[in-house]
Amino acid sequence: MAFRVAAGPVVRRANISLLSLPAYSTTKFPSSSSQFLHNPIPLLNQNGPRYSIRAISGTTMDPVAPKKENEDQSPENWKIKMLYDGECPLCMREVDMLRERNKGYGTIKFLDISSDEYRPEENEGLDYKTVMGRIHAILSDGTVVTDVEAFRRLYEAVGLGWVYAITKYEPIATIVDSVYGVWAKYRLQITGRPSLEEVLEARRKKDEMCKDSKTCKM
């Protein structure tokens, strides 16, 4: 510390270097966060009032976890429901594309028919076996559409109607429906899954095991 003397009153000017702080100013911080909250931290005392900083202790707040959004939650103004098989890997690629596109439209309600929450009575009586046979979609007025017509309506709902526009006209419509029919018939085998009969039997056994319990045993 240096002092500069002038003709007038003596003025003390402290030249403090961060590298040469007095020993009492280099406070060791407590290792515990609880000690830090309750113990004051002394500051420099240059022949003047001694100050301290005390952290305000209060209820600690846990970080806010991001809200998990229900991906199949119904938009308020949906125009069409897409009933899809959530256990079909190839199908899910198309579903994910439409779901991402739908974020800007909110016109499609996505319903996974493989979910335990799926209810046929809430979807024009379309049960699991029926919908597994080929794609089904339900318009807001209750009209059921299937096959390529369902895809055309779904794509139109998110501004991609041009993709299937040509399928409205013959003979393209008949050809495309025939091709889709073959795909729908063999899609389980193509994707490496059991036959529809085996899938239905597995679901039946699962339902029997879970019939008397809220929590499924499988």
UniProtKB/TrEMBL annotation:
* Pfam families the UniProt entry points to: DCC1-like
Determine the domain of life of the protein's source. Eukaryota
UniProt xrefs under InterPro entries: DCC1-like (IPR007263), DCC1_Trx (IPR044691)
One annotated GO molecular function = protein-disulfide reductase activity
Q: What is this protein called?
A: Thiol-disulfide oxidoreductase DCC
Look up and give the organism this protein is from. Answer: Anisodus acutangulus
Q: What is the lineage of its organism?
A: Eukaryota, Viridiplantae, Streptophyta, Embryophyta, Tracheophyta
